[in-house]
Specification:
The chain is built from four helices and seven strands, in the order E-E-E-E-E-H-E-H-E-H-H. Helix content is 33%, strand content 22%. The protein is an alpha/beta fold.
């Protein structure tokens, strides 16, 4: 089975776990949005290009695991709209590509790995689990 994990933020990422034991991590593809407070948006065509190659493995099922995002206190309206737009864009691309989606909350996956909310500890655990991956960037904490 091919598992594709998606952190839906504009600075999020797409991680793919291949049946042969290899892993790939790609930044969320973005493009300019134009005028306004939020200057970028998800690039749906870029996301399709990243996800396209998972469909070319013969006799392999695919499971997309998408992290649910929620409003946080103090976030502005533009940020909340951008988060919802990003989440919906990812769901739409996956649905259009007929990729099954499992939506999971941060507490669910953190509980599985016995992690709390400290992002540096979460990132350290990811480095322990996947030492071959380039996870040294702070933006790779999730």
């Amino acid at each position: 089975m091919i598992i594709v994990g998606i952190d839906p933020g504009l600075t999020g990422a797409i991680a793919t776990s291949w049946p042969n034991g290899n892993y790939e991590v790609a930044d969320m593809p973005t493009m300019a949005k134009g005028k306004g407070r939020v200057k970028t948006q998800v690039n749906p065509a870029g996301l399709v290009n990243i996800l396209k190659h998972v469909q070319h493995w013969e006799n392999q099922s695919v499971q997309v695991v998408l992290e649910r995002i929620n409003a946080m206190p103090g976030q502005g309206v533009a940020s909340m709209f951008s988060m919802g737009d990003t989440f919906g864009c990812i769901r739409g691309v996956c649905a259009g590509m007929l990729l099954p989606i499992q939506i999971i909350t941060p507490p669910q996956w953190k509980k599985h790995y016995k992690l709390g909310s400290d992002k540096e500890i979460v990132r350290a655990r990811a480095i322990e689990l996947f030492p071959e991956q380039p996870l040294s960037r702070k933006k790779d904490h999730n």
